[in-house]
Write a structure and sequence with these properties.
Strand order of the largest sheet of chain A: 1-2
Largest sheet of chain A: 2 strands, antiparallel
CATH class of the largest domain in chain A: Mainly Alpha
Distance between the termini of chain A: 66 Å
CATH superfamily of the largest domain in chain B: MetI-like
Distance between the termini of chain B: 41 Å
Shape of chain B: elongated
Number of strands of chain B: 15
Order of helices and strands of chain A: HEEHHHHHHHHHHHHH
Strand content of chain A: under 5%
Largest sheet of chain B: 15 strands, mixed
Number of domains of chain B: 2
Number of helices of chain B: 17
Number of helices of chain A: 14
Helix content of chain A: over 70%
CATH architecture of the largest domain in chain B: Orthogonal Bundle
Oligomer: heterodimer
Structural class of chain B: alpha+beta
Number of domains of chain A: 2
């Protein structure tokens, strides 16, 4: 009897594991193993990409000290951080746009669709459009500046302007995108009673925002900040690859572009 | 009163912002319809030049060249003889010096002809003759070995024409398979290839006829030519064909020189396979995590969660090495198989499954339904919103992935749309700064994408909300 229960239990567990198997197998192979491998690899010197015992040499933390003393690494790390500074601004834009969208205008769906369009169009195609907008000669931005008599710089080719240009592009790309939709959903979840009560207490627009809206949407803010920072380290590859190639003089080389250049280019 | 004021301000802001959102897209669209001439003249203009039907004007022709397989160019005719040996029917041709013609004419600076150099001016009046021809014969034919293509320098005047070319060489007659299109402004070199293999981009093709019918040249054949008689004929394009022709010109050119069809097939294949795989594996695992009870469940789940925080760049190199190791480098496998599961999707579905009522499952279990039966017949139908969300997210992710395809593929055959587009128009790309062509290529990629994603927008927006707030 006990044996029977044991086998039936084992069978049941087997079924459970079968559900997990396809996903877990892929997970172990393509995520878990690479993570461990990567961590382990950071302690070794590795010649080439052949897998053999002689190709590896244990060097302890030497790789890290090498990286830390590498001047370029810090420049690229700085670039990545600088580009990530656009995240708080972006969150601000998202919240601002969501607040305006949330006013209950009749035709809000049309606005939402148009503002969301850049997110729908995202990809290399849109980056090429921006390359053309930022083009020094004949680009849209410099055309517009020329119309009011300002000679525009070579946006992507100047160490001074390349990073702001990339950041502006990112803002345009996502101003009315996913972050805004998230905030909109969060705002719609704030009970109207709170505002009514605040109004009775004589709270103004700022007071309502400061004491009701902001705390109520803070989980969303937190979520976007976290995903933004995680994404920020790996993002900034495609943009850089297509638009600037890390230049000029490394002014837009991000960590991920640096990794790509070091590991795959040659 | 304040409310109305606030609403108007909001409206103004949203409309203005909406215009900013649409501006780059509009710039892309108009650029794709412009010609090279407009693109290269500063400052750029929004206006698209509308081509005219040719009525009475002048075209210029300078140099007829033949290139051999060592890429040497032979001048067949440079129109330098003051008394032109060319005869015309239906129009007038004459050899004239460049400076007399160009006095006061707008022209492209890049290929400015040397002052004093002569060229053929072709004066036509299509109100009198519907088409015109001009030809000459060579008394001492030039012999060119291993000919690759023939090229002509033509100065277009932004009307639309079809230009056919034919030359005889003994018994053989070479004629353009399809007429060359002259629908541009300024100087341009038009090419005609002798073999289909050498034809790409804007290149037209010669077909050869002998006494006994058509002649086909194998890739290994050497084509020796010595043109004895050469003949051109010019026909104007009528409205609306001329407009249509010009509007589609950039698209046709890009489509011919870049294998977008191949990229589409690859991208769709990858996106479908990856989406299907991700939704299936995630749903199965999510069900196990959400509903089944087995030893180690929570530990495994936390393992999943922990890796979600690790940036993809960390695992990129080992994954690349593994792909090489499996022999998948530069195949579609490398693009599909590593993407078949997703921790994020598993997490998303698990959160959703957790919210489903348990009663139905219990009832089904009492009725003797198997685990898989419950999953398939009860859980999945109830989870449509979450499944659609994951489908859309996976599809978008696969469609837009860039770094991974960039490092695991080498041959153009396996490229995706994003890679192909970057290669065409990105930094140091194939098309240089011919932004009219680049924008046409971008539109070719973007239009289906926008249609797909617009159709899914409702689900997509709901999906974002669902995935963001269940954290």
């Amino acid at each position: 009897m006990a044996d029977e229960i044991k086998t039936s239990k084992a069978l049941k567990y087997l079924g459970c594991y079968l559900f997990l198997l396809p996903n877990a197998a892929m997970f172990v192979t393509f995520i878990l193993f690479p993570v461990i491998f990567s961590l382990g690899l950071s302690l070794f010197e590795w010649k080439g990409i052949e897998i053999s015992l002689t190709a590896f040499r244990f060097v302890g933390l030497n790789n890290f000290s090498g990286l830390i003393s590498n001047r370029y690494f810090w420049q690229y790390f700085g670039n990545t951080c600088f580009l990530m500074m656009s995240i708080p601004v972006m969150i601000g834009i998202h919240l601002g746009v969501a607040l305006v969208m949330n006013r209950g205008l009749k035709e809000v769906l049309a606005y939402r669709t148009i503002w969301f369009l850049p997110s729908v169009a995202a990809g290399v195609a849109m980056l090429l459009v921006w390359a053309w907008i930022y083009q020094a000669k004949g680009g849209l931005l410099n055309n517009m500046l020329a119309a009011i008599g300002i000679p525009g710089p070579n946006w992507l080719g100047s160490a001074h302007w390349a990073k702001p240009a990339l950041m502006t592009m990112t803002w345009w790309n996502s101003a009315g995108g996913m972050g805004m939709i998230l905030y909109l959903a969060a705002l719609q979840g704030v009970p109207q009673d709170y505002y009514d009560a605040a109004a009775i207490d004589g709270a103004g627009w700022w007071g309502k925002f400061r004491h009701i809206t902001w705390p109520m949407v803070s989980p969303t803010t937190f979520f976007m900040l976290i995903t933004g920072v995680i994404g920020g380290f790996q993002a900034g590859f495609t943009n850089v690859y297509v638009l600037t190639g890390g230049g000029p003089a490394g002014a837009t080389t991000t960590i991920s572009y640096y990794i790509y250049n070091n590991a795959y280019r040659d | 009163m304040r409310r109305i004021l606030g609403n108007s301000a909001a409206r103004a802001f949203l409309i203005l912002g909406g215009m900013v959102m649409l501006l780059p897209l509009g710039w892309m669209l108009t650029t794709a319809l412009k010609d090279e001439w407009t693109i290269q003249n500063y400052p750029g203009k929004w206006k698209i030049s509308i081509p005219q039907t040719a009525v009475k004007d002048t075209l210029l022709l300078d140099y007829i060249l033949v290139m051999n397989d060592e890429l040497e160019e032979w001048v067949l005719e440079d129109f330098e003889e003051p008394v032109t040996p060319w005869e015309a029917q239906g129009m007038e041709v004459s050899s004239s010096a460049a400076h007399t013609f160009f006095a006061g004419t707008e022209r492209q600076k890049k290929v400015e002809p040397k002052v004093g150099e002569r060229m053929l001016t072709i004066d036509y009046d299509f109100t009198r003759n519907a088409q015109g021809q001009w030809q000459r014969s060579f008394k001492q034919p030039m012999r060119i070995e291993n000919a690759l293509n023939m090229s002509l320098w033509v100065y277009g005047n932004d009307c639309g024409y079809e230009l056919s070319l034919e030359f005889t060489d003994g018994d053989r007659v070479f004629s353009t398979q399809e007429p060359l299109l002259v629908n541009f402004r300024g100087w341009r070199k038009l090419y005609v290839a002798f073999r289909p293999e050498d034809q790409y981009g804007e290149l037209a093709l010669f077909t050869a006829h002998g006494k006994d019918g058509p002649i086909t040249f194998a890739p290994t054949d050497d084509i020796h030519i010595s043109p004895q008689e050469i003949k051109f004929s010019l026909t104007p394009l009528a409205y609306p064909k001329v407009l249509f022709n010009k509007a589609l010109n950039n698209f046709r050119l890009v489509w011919r020189s870049i294998p977008f069809g191949r990229y589409y097939v690859n991208t769709l294949l990858i996106a479908f396979a990856v989406t299907l795989g991700q939704v299936m594996t995630s749903a199965l695992a999510a069900y196990a995590f959400a509903r089944l009870d087995f030893p180690g469940r929570d530990k495994i789940f936390y393992g999943y969660l922990a890796t979600m925080m690790i940036p993809g760049a960390v695992t990129m190199i080992p994954r690349f090495v593994m792909v090489k190791w499996f022999g998948w480098f530069d195949t579609l496998y490398a693009l599909i198989i590593p993407g078949l599961s997703t921790t994020y999707g598993t997490f998303l579905l698990r959160q959703f499954f957790k919210t489903l009522p348990k009663d139905l499952e219990d009832a089904a279990r009492i009725d003797g339904c198997s685990l898989f039966g419950i999953f398939w017949r009860i859980i999945l139908p109830l989870s449509k919103p979450a499944l659609i969300t994951l489908t859309v997210i996976s599809f978008m992710g696969a469609w837009q992935m860039f770094l991974w395809p960039l490092i695991v593929t080498k041959s153009q055959e396996y490229w995706t749309l994003q890679i192909g587009l970057a290669y065409m128009g990105g930094r140091g790309g194939e098309m240089g700064s011919q932004y009219n062509l680049i924008m046409a290529g971008a539109l070719i990629v973007l239009i289906p994408q926008v249609i797909i994603f617009m159709a899914a927008q409702k689900f997509f927006q709901r999906g974002i909300v669902l995935s963001g707030l269940k954290e």
